[in-house]
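User: Hey, my collaborator sent me this sequence without any context and asked if I could get a structure. I don't really work with proteins. Can you help?
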Amino acid sequence: MTRNPTSILLDDDAAYLALQTRDARFDGRFFVGVTSTRIYCRPVCKVRPPMRKNCRFFANAALAEQQGFRPCLRCRPEQAPGLSMMDSSQALACRAATMLGQAAHEGLDPTLPALAQRLGVTDRHLRRIFNQVHGVSPLAYLSTQRLLLAKQLLTDTAIPVTEVALATGYASLRRFNASFVERYRMSPSALRKASPAADGPDATREPMLRMAWRPPYDVDAVLGFFARRAVPGVETVEGLTLRRTLAVEHRGEQLAGWLTLRFRPDRHELALSVSPSMLPALGLLLNRVRQAFDLDADPALIDPVLADIGSGSKAGQPGMRLLGGLDGFEIAARVILGQQVTVAAARTLTLRLVERFGEAIATPYADLGRLFPSSRTIADASAESIGTLGIVRQRVAALQALAAEVAAGRIELQRSAPLQATLDALRALPGIGDWSAQLIAMRALAWPDAWPATDIGVLNALREQTGGERNAKLAEAHAERWRPWRAYAVMKLWQQLEP
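Assistant: No problem. I've predicted the 3D structure and written it out in structure-token form, which is a compact way to encode the shape of the chain:
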């Protein structure tokens, strides 16, 4: 089996055993190609396991496709969890893969020199490291991500083939068709007709796209986290369903609508449905949802490091995730509004901001009707109008300074943004110290080792370990044992304090 440093190392016999038992913990860690059919599957595929002699194991989908295997129409490799980011010698290649996956989902066509520049290395070094870690070139990896996204859109939506081609970054329908046929040995229209999915394309209903996670996944903790912070009119949590409004910029156009997320714990899946107005940005939304709910995390790597947190309590449950949001500016704005106040007070201030500056939007849901205000709206508002909402002057200044930088494109608040440069830019703004910068990096940039050293919740949860006092230095020293997953430790420590 080709080795993937971000995975638990398996020999072929162990991989075959995981395939036989359909062990969901290994979903996305490897794929199996069947030589008799030239098809590759996830280890959770429900078809009868092939004979051992016919199996070839690959660390990622791009490797399988490079060897001439095409994706299974039943287990849907495009739904598998992706790479888990790590603070290791392979982090550069892992981050590059994440950025390529994001580009594929947003229909972008990044050049290798541009990608290398964002990562602060030469393109030659990036190519060498990428091949060493993933076994394929960056271009081959990007091509696989694009085609797998196209496969998912063709199978689960009624979006015209021409629009699928554009959404996945192809300059022409002819080039898209040629690439699809060459790789998958069938045309895009033939795949759509052959889809075995029971909930296949239907122009009369909302599309539903499914994304898998690796168990365990603490669904109750995740939904509880969002429910306690839900802002009326913008988002709501009911049972295993989360709904919210959202506005995104896609190909220079502002799109606004709503989306529904349904957790399916029995299937280790999250199902996404969107309003018709958001269909052109489905790829972008898939990428944001995967980050917001940390669907690519690998609990087998993370949970053992955090085993001493909350033993015997709900914080001791395995499968906690590093939770973000669907809009980087919104996350950062809510962090600023939460400075030195409780979660409930921060939600009240956020609600006032939404009611005053959020655009009204028509939805089929009585409890959803406003968008979170854009960075441009907040940057252009007068400080006095924001101050009348009960937000203190220092936080108004911080909020507007951040909004101006984001609106101008000088600060990017997304996973692919350069970490250190973004932290430095945030700390340079008035009213944003290290606590705020670390929380923004944790939730907007998905940095797994973020550590807000002065967070009151963290300090309270660690009092027993710091001699009964709130001591940030002692708490930080204690947290060294949780590297490189300290941000996950923060989530578990917060969970420990919840009523």
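In plain terms: The chain has three domains: 12-75, 91-194, 207-296+325-445. You can pass these tokens on to your collaborator as they are.
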